[in-house]
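Many introductory courses stop at the sequence. We go one step further.
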Amino acid sequence: METPDLLQPSEQTPSLKTEELAAAQGLRLRSLVYGLRFIFSKALLIGVSIFLAVFLTVLLINNPNQKERDVGPPQLEYRMWQQIEMQTRNYLAASPEIRELPQEEQGELLQSYRNVLIEESGLNLPFLQRHLKWTINALSFNWGRFSYITPVRPSVFYVLKATHFNLNSIILQHLPFSVLLAGSAFFIVFSG
């Protein structure tokens, strides 16, 4: 009777190692796919939650103003209409060449400028599309621009000076300090 030599590798050892390596690689690949799927599902859930939270915030901000028995216009839309009218007045005040035009041409030019502002703000869209546009603008940090006119008084006449700001730059300039303040507050409250 022949007894197999235990010290010599058998012929099945290379194929067994190959199968074990293939199984290990398959397990790693499945783990990677499972991990990526898990991360993607959580990121999607967080993204949808943030989108819905901002959308509901926009809806709440645009709620009609109710004082006792009177119901006013929706707050956000009303403020946007006020901004459009103020922008139109500022545009007219800051452009002496427009003020020199005849009334009809001046009115047409101001109305076309007003229509551009209405289209930019989304006030010409239906309810759902308008609120979705505002939500997407809020999430993409597209908060518009702000301008104001200050009178500068030389010796005899008032001269109007228009100043324009991009709201994104103003808000993003102060955002790191706000995040630091909120983060510090959360750390202090929840660490103790």
